[in-house]
User: Fold this.
Amino acid sequence: MAENPPSHVADSHEVIRVVGARENNLKNVSVEIPKRRLTVFTGVSGSGKSSLVFGTIANESQRLINETYPTFVQQFMGQLSRPDVDALENVSPAIIVDQERMGSNARSTVGTATDAHAMLRLLFSRLGQPHVGSPQAFSFNIPSVSGAGAVTMEKGGKKVKERRSFEITGGMCPRCEGLGEVSDVDLDELYDKTKSLAEGAMTVPGYNVDGWMVKGFTESGFVDPNKAIQDYTEQEREDFLYKEPTKVKINGINMTYEGLVPKITKSFLQKDRDSLQPHVRAFVDRAVKFMPCPDCGGSRLNEGARSSKILGLSIADAAAMQITDLAAWLDTVNDPSVAPLMAGLRQTIASFIDIGLGYLSLDRSSGTLSGGEAQRTKMIRHLGSPLTDISYVFDEPTAGLHPHDIARMNRLLKLLRDKGNTVLVVEHKPEVIEIADHVVDLGPGAGRAGGEVQYEGDVAGLRASGTITGRHLDDRARLKPSTRSAKGALEIRGATQHNLKNVDVDVPLGILTVVTGVAGSGKSSLIHGNVPAFDDVVVVDQSPIKGNRRSSPATYTGILDTVRSAFAKANGVKPALFSANSEGACPACRGLGVIITNLGFTQTVETLCELCEGSGFSDEVLEYTLDGKNIAEVLAMSASDAAAFFAKGPAHTTLVRLIDVGLGYLTLGQALNTLSGGERQRLKLAISMAKKGAIYVLDEPTTGLHLADVDNLLALLDRLVEAGNSVIVIEHHQAVMAHADWIIDIGPGAGHDGGAIVFEGTPADLVASSDTLTAQHLREYVGALQGVAAS
Assistant:
């Protein structure tokens, strides 16, 4: 029998080899990750998982791919810096599927983000009756325009004029310009019509009676400043509200007079909402009302695009259908002339259903998707891809998924692996860790206490390893032996937002209430759409914290103001001196701590500032101390150390709250853009915890939390309730469900199969008597605990 031939040298690159990784808190990490296998990275929040997977491996893969493009193309691409690592070998091209929310561009929808809408447009341009034009005639981003005129060109040495005309048929609704909604200014929020301008009728921020803004109206001659606005003549009202810009003289100065509505629109409404000051933003939210466009009914499309139909449906009807229904309709379209197109479209629509997003519609704005929904939408592009030997990098793909949907996600991860791809997953859920071929556990703690490899190997070895992840892998929360009694209720009556079916429910107050149900069942619609926005309602959702490299936990929480004031008082100087963004900045690096050298189309180079040695402060500032520490040393402290340093006062109170939410390891000066998603949400929670007797609405607070940290979160929720608050949690984690005083289960399915209350009661009653999907999984979860106890 012949011996096996020697293996080819090309087969020796079977592992991704990382040597000496030092990104963020990583401490010279070296690991070998098997290729064409499913590897799960575990560890407490902040232990360095994302720094290793995203900041090192995926970042370097994308950087190397970018370098293969021509320099002309590279100058238009985002520049990625080289990760801090000694060596990275055998890296394959990486596709990153993260939890970053999709851009909130008003023109971006689920259909446009996945190319499904482009295929629908092509289908309607071929089969739609009556025929209205090419695919762009069904695009809500292209307006219909036409024009004609003379063009001058040179022919045979002579200038010749020729008449040319053009016509573009687009699908954009002319009234709403393809946005699907129109804004209307609520005039009652701009002024008190019972008063005159001289009496202070204006309620717009900055429009004071003796200010220039109001003088522009009172001294223009167009309106009577002493007459109540409700008594204006038709002409005065028109001039006051809508007059076109007109030159006038006020106190001998030439000025432009403009009606109040266009003036407000330009100064407030056309600016980025997030850039406005909080009181101006609150005014804009009150004054502007958005409503579906009356011309297109919110479909974004003009009459021509809506008139062309296939089997009785227009493209607007198809895009508005729930995707499961759209799949059924597409099965009825069987014209052989569009067979290749239909195959691609059906495959994309089937991917939505496979991935658990069948309850969406293609016209859903992509900015309204949750982090988990956005991540799964991005996956759709890759499910049917024929590419192989790719590294797929996932950031908690089970975020926002009910236990019922996690098994489906696991199947998809294994499918990608079985096609010959390397799948790298950052995850905390035991159900996902269980399917791993290889596990890399980082820790032992978070922040500076983490950044080291605790374990590498299979899942059985992880269980026996004694690491914090191994010890908690089989953790199961117990049902509470007794639950608290409600102290009143928040009544919701006739809720019909999105898929809710005229829901009546009493949300108990004074206890811990968990609202659960499969993804897309209507949980967020019920709570966010019906819990009133009173001052005592604190909503901690998953919207990202906006921050750049100059933002830090100290600036975000307001601690830095207190710290600067304490330094200024102790040294008899101005507080502005202790800001790296102001007078105290190092003159060389301007407060950044690094010198950034822009090298055009190649990567930007960052070097430590030699003058301030990375502190960001000038030498003069660092000479001032507070209890023996300078400002740079204080900002380098962890929240736990800083709480001991500032033993009392508002800074101490805020720091204690940071420790309570499990962020005691964060340094005060750490850049916000280096925090993980779970850390950012808990940072928001820490700021919001000051109120007593409030209603706290938390949207999936276990996102990004390690199994060991979930216990700390449950203890924190208990402390909030015991302090006299009401806590409403939208959550899928079985440990949080088991710990609840009251559960509201919404379902039974997603989209139009959900939207109803299928259970209200205690967790014990849910496990004992209900047969909803949530009850089945919670029963299995609690049963696993009893099985462990019995053995």
